[in-house]
Design a protein that fits this description.
Blueprint (H helix, E strand, L loop, with lengths): L1 H12 L2 H23 L19 H12 L7 H11 L18 E11 L5 E11 L4 E10 L2 H19 L26
Antiparallel strand pairs: 1-2, 2-3
Length: 193
């Protein structure tokens, strides 16, 4: 279906046009309805149709990941499985961030966001859900004030490596996930309307 194709493009390759189409189709009333049901009280959708300027904090990102990874009354089991499936199929050039250092024994689900702004430099975010290897866990790292996108990515990956190593200390260094490529600043996700 059209929605499935748009959702796939939006999640797996950060397709701005697909995101804009879905944002317009849903409308802010439905987005706000979901945020309320999810208890994501600190998330503010971008005004004027600019989804790329949505404001969110790490607590709300963690709430979202909890809804995606555990049974709840907000998302159906089928919806949760679908979201995780798409997050597990993100293109290699965007599999950076929170997966860095994850043991190979876990299933990796990731979604990243990045935007250069005139204030606070580059905003680079990464959320991930990790399943298997003895226990499931989620990681959200949000950064701003980065001089370059790469600096933000490096910061997130340094944090992620420490968390993965702390949560899975017995995994061998040789079996830990290394991002497949270095993101380029040319892949700029600009505010869309």
């Amino acid at each position: 279906t059209r929605e499935a194709n748009l959702a796939t493009a939006m999640i797996t390759k950060s397709d701005n046009a697909a995101t804009t189409s879905l944002w317009k189709q849903l409308g802010t009333t439905k987005v706000k309805g979901f945020l309320k049901a999810a208890g994501m009280t600190r998330t503010v959708p971008g005004s004027g149709g600019y989804w790329g300027l949505t404001q969110i904090n790490v607590q709300d990102e963690q709430k979202l990941l909890s809804l995606v990874t555990a049974k709840n009354t907000v998302l159906s089991d089928n919806s949760r499985a679908y979201i995780l499936k798409l997050m597990g199929k993100v293109v290699s050039s965007q599999r950076w961030g929170t997966p860095a250092g994850a043991p190979s024994s876990v299933a990796v689900h990731v979604k990243n966001g990045w935007l250069q702004r005139s204030t606070y430099g580059w905003r680079v975010h990464s959320i991930g859900a990790f399943q298997g290897g003895g226990h499931d866990y989620t990681i959200s790292v949000l950064t701003h004030g980065n001089s370059t996108m790469s600096y933000g990515v490096d910061t997130i990956q340094a944090v992620a490596r420490v968390i993965h190593k702390d949560l899975t200390p017995t995994a061998a260094a040789s079996s830990r996930y290394t991002p497949t490529s270095t993101p380029k600043e040319a892949f700029v996700a600009v505010p869309q309307k």
